[in-house]
Design goal:
The protein is of the alpha/beta class. It has one domain: P-loop containing nucleotide triphosphate hydrolases (Rossmann fold). The chain is built from nine helices and seven strands; from the N terminus they run H-E-H-E-H-E-H-E-H-E-H-H-E-H-E-H. Strands 3-2-4-1-5-6-7 form a seven-stranded parallel β-sheet, sandwiched between helices. Helix 8 (181-191) links the parallel strand 6 and strand 7. Helix 2 crosses helix 9.
Length: 227
């Protein structure tokens, strides 16, 4: 090899490829123990924690549910879950802005996923990094809040292209903001045509039952498929 030749190694591509393979392996492991893993992604302040709380209230009528709370630091969200009687553990990412498949595997082992039907991951809050790393989840749920604007699928298309279901939260504040549900749904369809969009308010509870029913049916399909 010519010593003057510059060698370029695309580490990111290699890391992502390795993670994708590991994520597929994790899905096989989850299938074997009959656990459904839901990855919830959004920007900070969209209402992830309050939405998850509402969803768990509904889902645990049918399933045993646990929650993984991922943050760069802090344990506020985990304390909120535990105070509501929801099995939960805090994940500190050490400055990383996402979780990958192996981080998920370690976290699922710690919470005891083999004894749970559904585990919900509240991923680190941002609309960029979490979309790039497959966590091994069977369902990717993306939340956007009304104050963020209806154009976010145009600005963060990768995130919305990964969504199996999209949730618009804080619809109780719709009148105070210039947000068009019709435009938003059209923009989502450009990224992910098959992803349903649910309009909810974690504050009032509006729309939560319909979203929970969709997740309940999807979980049922996954669990029946691996039976």
């Amino acid at each position: 090899m010519d010593p003057s030749e510059v060698r370029i190694i695309d580490l990111k591509e290699s890391i992502l490829a390795d993670n994708d393979a590991d994520a597929d392996k994790l899905r096989e492991e989850l299938a074997a123990e009959k656990t459904v893993y839901i990855n919830v992604m959004s920007s900070p302040g969209s209402g992830k924690t309050s939405t998850i709380l509402r969803l768990v209230e509904e889902l645990r009528l049918s399933y045993k549910v646990g929650v993984l709370e991922a943050d760069i630091d802090g344990d506020v969200d985990t304390k909120t879950m535990l105070s509501a009687g929801i099995p939960s553990i805090q994940l500190h990412t050490g400055g990383m802005c996402h979780l990958d498949a192996d981080m998920s595997r370690q976290s699922l082992r710690e919470i005891g996923s083999e004894d749970l039907d559904i585990v919900i991951l509240e991923n680190v809050g941002n609309l960029v990094c979490p979309a790039e790393f497959d966590t091994g989840a069977q369902i990717n749920l993306v939340i956007l809040s009304v104050p963020e604007g209806d154009d976010k699928p145009l600005k963060y298309p990768l995130m919305f292209s990964k969504a199996d279901v999209v949730v618009v939260n804080k619809i109780d504040a719709m009148e105070a903001f210039d947000f068009s549900p019709e435009k938003f749904k059209r923009y989502v369809a450009e990224c992910r045509p098959e992803a349903p969009v649910f309009m909810v308010s974690a504050y009032t509870g509006e729309g939560i039952k319909a979203l929970a029913e969709w997740l309940r049916e999807r979980a049922k399909e996954i669990l029946e498929y691996v039976s």
